[in-house]
Amino acid sequence: MEHRDNARDDPRAGTRAETAAVRPNGSGAVVSDQHWAADLRTAVGCAAGLLGMLVCVDWAAGSLSWWRCALWLALALVLFLVLFPARVCAGDGWLASRRLLRGHRVRTDLLVVARPLGGVSQRLVLRDSLGARVEIDPEVLVGNPGLWYRLDEGARRSEAAGTLRSGNTALRRLAARIDRETALAVFRTSGLR
To answer: How many structural domains comprise the chain?
Structure first.
């Protein structure tokens, strides 16, 4: 069974004005990571800075050659690939994460598992009943309340339907953290803290 989550993929979908008329108040709108472009610029800047530094040091030492320049370029490219941020977006009943070469999409209204992974970088693993799996950084959800709202909305539907078997505690902890961060931001903005 195929689900069409994105109106742009469906040739039968109407124009944006027709879609907005069907979904009042933007309730069906797609929400994206607001900080992705800045993270991408940071990745490009770090890679370019490393390349520039290595070429300058090699040039100052008098050992710069075309093959060494190619080596430094390859090293800067590897750093860029490591730092390239995942682009996370969500809509009504789905959440997607796209890296440089691959993208993954999970149905949040059919979630089965939502568990945190520890380690060097924290991750939240979401798996749906269709077998799809997405790993996202919880900081993306903390920094983007719209994404969190979409995920939470779908997770609540999964919980009500009885499909979410594991991960309620992890999602509640994340919700408490997001509420705390939002309250602190409001206090900072209003000058109370």
So the answer is: 2
Q: Which amino acid, one-letter code, is at 101? A: L
> How far is 61 from 2, CA to CA, in rounded Å?
60
The sign of the dihedral angle between the CA atoms of 10, 12, 15, 17 is negative
Which amino acid, one-letter code, is at 70? Answer: A
In a domain, 48, yes or no: yes
| Cα 130 to the center of its chain, rounded Å | 21
d(C-alpha 95, C-alpha 154), whole Å: 9
Does residue 126 sit in the same domain as residue 170?
yes
Six-digit token pair at 105?
């999409």
In a domain, 12, yes or no: no
DSSP β-bridge partners for residue 91:
94
Last residue of a domain, one of 83, 110, 138: 83
Q: What is the span of the domain harbouring residue 168?
A: 86-190
Statement to judge: residues 144 and 64 lie in one domain: no
Confidence of residue 28 (pLDDT cuts 50, 70, 90): low
User: Would you mind telling me the total number of residues written for the chain in this entry?
Assistant: 193
Quick count: other Cβ atoms within 10 Å of Cβ 81?
Answer: 13
- pLDDT category, 27, cuts 50, 70, 90? low
Confidence category of residue 193, pLDDT binned at 50, 70, 90: low
Answer whether residue 22 is part of any domain: no
Question: Within its chain, how far is the Cα of 35 from the centroid?
Answer: 9
For residue 91, give the nearest of 17, 3, 27 by alpha carbon. Answer: 27
In Å, what is the CA distance from 111 to each residue of 55, 107, 118, 135, 156? 49, 6, 20, 13, 9
